[in-house]
C-alpha cells in the first residue's frame, strides 16, 4: 500500500478521499473465487441479482501479476454480443504487488484516461482490486504485434496517449517493506519517511515525479537484502541506475520536460484489436486498437515506451529472433510521428517530419537496453513475493541479461573480448 495515499470508503461503499470512483469495502478471495467475485459484482450491479440473471465468470490467464475475471450475465434471449455490452472485468491484485505498484496512482491513471476517451469506464475499487467495463475486441498475441496492420495501429494509439494525455505530478507512492522483507538496505532503511520520499523523487534531477526513473529507484529499494549476495546485487543495480540516469534522463525528447504519459507495459495481452464495426472515426478498413491495464503507466521518455513495446514482440518467452528489425522500427516510428504531431493540442507550425522520425529512431536505439533493466528488477522482487506459478527468477535472469548484453555492446566490452554478438543485438541491427 502506498504510504498515506490510499483512499478508503464508508460502510455503504460511498466515496471517501479525493477519488471519484466508488470504493467497496470487500475483497476478492482466490480460494472462494466465484462467490467472492459475485458479491463484488452485485455490489456494483444489484440488478444482476434478479431471477432472470445467469452470471458466469471467465478467467483470463495471460497476465503474470493479477487475477482477471470477466463477469457476464447470460440472460435468456441475449446474444453473445448483447451480453458482452454489459460485461465487466474484475481484476484482483497479486500478492504483495503494492510494494511494486502505487494502486492509488493506478486509479488516477484510469480516471485520467477515461476523461480522454482512452480507457473503459472504471466502476469501482475494492480492497484488493478494481472493476471496469469489458472492452470488446480481440486480445493480441505476440505474433500479432509483428503484423504491419497491427503495429501501425499500436503506433497511432500510442501517439494519441503521448500527444493528448497530460503528465500529472505527484509523489512516487511507496511501501517501506513488503510481506517477506524486513526493510531495505541503506540509505532507505535509515531514513525517515519524508527523507526517503525526497531521495526517491529526486533520483532524476529536474524531472517532475513520479516518472520511470523514480519507479526504478523505488523497485531497487524494494529488492530483498537478506543475504550478502542480494545486497551486492542491489548495490550493483543501484550503481547502474545512476549511470542510466546520467546518460539518458536529461536527453531532449517529446512532451513537456522530455516526458510523456506512457503505458510502460505494452505487451500483447494489453493490446486489444477493436472490431471494425465499432470504429468511431477514421478509416474503418484500417485496424484500430486500444490499451488496457494502466498499473505501470507513468511519465516517461517516449523512447522508453517504444523500446519497451518492441521488447514485447518476443513475448514472455523473450524470443529475441523476432524483435523488430530496423525497417520495422522505422515503419512503426514513421506512423507514430505522423500521428503524434497531428494530435498535439497545440500543433507546431513547421515540422520537419523526416528529422523527427530520425531523431526518435535514434532515441529508441539509445533506450533499447533499458526495458531489460526495468523488468529484470521487477522480476527479482516478484520472485520473492508472488504466489503465481511463473518462474520469475529465470525471467529476471533473461531480462537483466538483455541489459548487460546491451551494456557490453555500447561499452565495447563484447568486441574486445572477441565474443559473438548476442542474438538480440544482432536482430536489432538487422535491416530487414
From TrEMBL:
Keywords: Kinase, Transferase. PANTHER family: CHOLINE/ETHANOALAMINE KINASE, ETHANOLAMINE KINASE. It comes from Lasiosphaeria ovina. Its EC number is 2.7.1.82. This is ethanolamine kinase. Pathway: Phospholipid metabolism; phosphatidylethanolamine biosynthesis; phosphatidylethanolamine from ethanolamine: step 1/3. GO terms for biological process: phosphatidylethanolamine biosynthetic process. Coiled coil: none annotated. The lineage of its organism: Eukaryota, Fungi, Dikarya, Ascomycota, Pezizomycotina. It is an enzyme of class 2 (transferase). Belongs to the choline/ethanolamine kinase family. One of its GO terms (cellular component) is cytoplasm. Residues 169-188 are annotated as: Disordered. It holds the Pfam family Choline_kinase. The keyword RNA-binding does not apply. GO terms for molecular function: ethanolamine kinase activity.
Amino acid at each position: 500500500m502506498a504510504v498515506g495515499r490510499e483512499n478508503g470508503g464508508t460502510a455503504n461503499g460511498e466515496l471517501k478521499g479525493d477519488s471519484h470512483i466508488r470504493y467497496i469495502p470487500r475483497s476478492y478471495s482466490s480460494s472462494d473465487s466465484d462467490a467472492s467475485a459475485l458479491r463484488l459484482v452485485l455490489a456494483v450491479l444489484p440488478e444482476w441479482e434478479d431471477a432472470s440473471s445467469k452470471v458466469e465468470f471467465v478467467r483470463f490467464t495471460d497476465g503474470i501479476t493479477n487475477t482477471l475475471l470477466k463477469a457476464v450475465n447470460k440472460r435468456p434471449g441475449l446474444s453473445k454480443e448483447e451480453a458482452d455490452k454489459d460485461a465487466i472485468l474484475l481484476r484482483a491484485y497479486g500478492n504483495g504487488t503494492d510494494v511494486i505498484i502505487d494502486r492509488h496512482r493506478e486509479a488516477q491513471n484510469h480516471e485520467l484516461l477515461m476523461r480522454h476517451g482512452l480507457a473503459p469506464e472504471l466502476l469501482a475499487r475494492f480492497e484488493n482490486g478494481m472493476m471496469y467495463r469489458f472492452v470488446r475486441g480481440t486480445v493480441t498475441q505476440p505474433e500479432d504485434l509483428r503484423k504491419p496492420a497491427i503495429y501501425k495501429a499500436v503506433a497511432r494509439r500510442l501517439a494519441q496517449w503521448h500527444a493528448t494525455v497530460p503528465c500529472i505530478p505527484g509523489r512516487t507512492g511507496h511501501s517501506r517493506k513488503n510481506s517477506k522483507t524486513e526493510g531495505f538496505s541503506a540509505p532507505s532503511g535509515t531514513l525517515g519517511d519524508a527523507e526517503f520520499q525526497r531521495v526517491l523523487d529526486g533520483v532524476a534531477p529536474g524531472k517532475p515525479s513520479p516518472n520511470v526513473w523514480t519507479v526504478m529507484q523505488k523497485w531497487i529499494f524494494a529488492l530483498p537484502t537478506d543475504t550478502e549476495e542480494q545486497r551486492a546485487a542491489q548495490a550493483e543495480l543501484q550503481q547502474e541506475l545512476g549511470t542510466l540516469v546520467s546518460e539518458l534522463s536529461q536527453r531532449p525528447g517529446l512532451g513537456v520536460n522530455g516526458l510523456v504519459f506512457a503505458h510502460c507495459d505494452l505487451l500483447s495481452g494489453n493490446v486489444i484489436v477493436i472490431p471494425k464495426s465499432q470504429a468511431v472515426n477514421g478509416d474503418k478498413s484500417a485496424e484500430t486498437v486500444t490499451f488496457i491495464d494502466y498499473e505501470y503507466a507513468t511519465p516517461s521518455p517516449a523512447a522508453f515506451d517504444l523500446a519497451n513495446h518492441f521488447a514485447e514482440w518476443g513475448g514472455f518467452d523473450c524470443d529475441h529472433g523476432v524483435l523488430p528489425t530496423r525497417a520495422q522500427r522505422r515503419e512503426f516510428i514513421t506512423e507514430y510521428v505522423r500521428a503524434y504531431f497531428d494530435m498535439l493540442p497545440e500543433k507546431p507550425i513547421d515540422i520537419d517530419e523526416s528529422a523527427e522520425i530520425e531523431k526518435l529512431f535514434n532515441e529508441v536505439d539509445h533506450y533499447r537496453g533499458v526495458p531489460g533493466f526495468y523488468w529484470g528488477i521487477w522480476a527479482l522482487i516478484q520472485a520473492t513475493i508472488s504466489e503465481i506459478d511463473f518462474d520469475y527468477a529465470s525471467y529476471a535472469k533473461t531480462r537483466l541479461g538483455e541489459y548487460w548484453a546491451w551494456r557490453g555492446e555500447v561499452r565495447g566490452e563484447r568486441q574486445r573480448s572477441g565474443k559473438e554478438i548476442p542474438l538480440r543485438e544482432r536482430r536489432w541491427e538487422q535491416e530487414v
